[in-house]
Amino acid sequence: MYPLRGAVRNYSWGSHTALAELTGRPAPTEEPEAELWLGAHPAAPAVVDEDGTTVSLLDLIARDPEGQLGSECAREFDGRLPFLLKVLAAEQPLSLQAHPSRAQAREGFARENDAGIPLGAPHRNYRDDNHKPEMVVALSRFEALAGFRAPTETVEFLRDLSVPELTPYASELGDHLDATGLRALFTAWMTLPTKSLVALTDAVLAGCERYLAARAGSDDEFTVAARTALDLGRAYAEDPGVIASLLLNRVSMEPGDALFLPAGNLHAYLRGTVVEIMANSDNVLRGGLTSKHVDVPELLRVLDFGSVDVPWVRARIDRGECLYAPPVCEFELVRAELDLSGTSRPTSAAFGGPASRILLCVEGSAQLRCSDQILNLERGEAAWVPGSDPELVVQARSPHATVFAATLPVPSEST
Ligand SMILES: [Zn+2]
């Protein structure tokens, strides 16, 4: 196993304090720090030290895919680490987005290649032919928009706002309380000419202000959604994402809560810090709330208007370990709460199975042992454990330690 140093990405929406505090650096930082990448993605691979030299995890794996990933994973994923683990720290909302399915990604990637759009072009939608399901587990309170709200509730919300300009839209949706109605409404708003968009947004935001003034102190979902629309309106002018936010589930997550964003789920992260894990892909279709490339027609092609539940992931809890296992073959995540009292070895496959794994300590101090090799992880530190390493033993070095392990799902009959 190796100590693993992640790569910090400085996007404008990032936090000036969260990642620095997590990794023990002075805060606030001069640049916003949005993401810490712990993986083997070519754009920013994490690094390890090998005999005094710095080696990227990408190169380490490329040199010996079977030894590093384990033979099964190397075979199944073409010698590449199939997931990317991140810590994401948002101080401001980031873009309204969705990710394609594998079939959509394959088709879109080929189509853009045929059209001769260079891979690095800012207006390129599909940078690879893979899907990008993602899951987030909150480290702090985390605010997000995730998936369309049930249309009946959205009609109620739009009517409650008492904005005359919204009445025809609410009636239209009220007549079609299903995926078709949602698609029609979302499409209408996302494709409004700028002048009409600005007029409607101004009316809606004025309505939100009146709505909030009449409900001072309230904290129900509609109140929070109205407040969010106002916040987004202040940050993004002439952006259809502001009114589109009214159609989405407004989610507040406590530490340990998790969301899974499957293909076609429209989402936007608003504020807070999460551990995020995703399939190794860069395919993002954006609809707004960003200065990056937005492609509404392409977004509309991939969106799923049929699922209206908040996509919570219910962790399976077993002896101090929470297993977050969404329905994908590329990753799962375990959060282990360790103390000095007893169990020195988490029992799940995420820590002991035959696949490689990335460990990340987010609280306290932990010790990793692989036969006679010992590695101490302090808060904010990570480790790469190759699939060929002997069984891993993890224990707390402080009264309480929290360690995440990212790995491949292991079929339950083999554990
Ligand atoms: Zn996303």
From TrEMBL:
Obligatory cofactor(s): Zn(2+)
Name of the protein described by the UniProt record: mannose-6-phosphate isomerase
Domain of life, source organism: Bacteria
Keyword DNA repair attached: no
One Pfam assignment: PMI_typeI_cat
PROSITE patterns: PMI_I_1
Enzyme Commission identifier(s): 5.3.1.8
Entry-linked SUPFAM superfamilies: RmlC-like cupins
Record's keyword terms, sorted: Isomerase, Metal-binding, Zinc
Similarity comment: family membership: Belongs to the mannose-6-phosphate isomerase type 1 family.
Broadest EC class assigned to this enzyme: isomerase
Segments forming domain Phosphomannose isomerase type I catalytic: 1-149
PANTHER family tied to this protein: MANNOSE-6-PHOSPHATE ISOMERASE (PTHR10309)
Chemical reaction(s) catalysed: D-mannose 6-phosphate = D-fructose 6-phosphate
MF terms in GO: mannose-6-phosphate isomerase activity
Gene3D superfamilies according to UniProt: Jelly Rolls (2.60.120.10), Phosphomannose Isomerase, domain 2 (1.10.441.10)
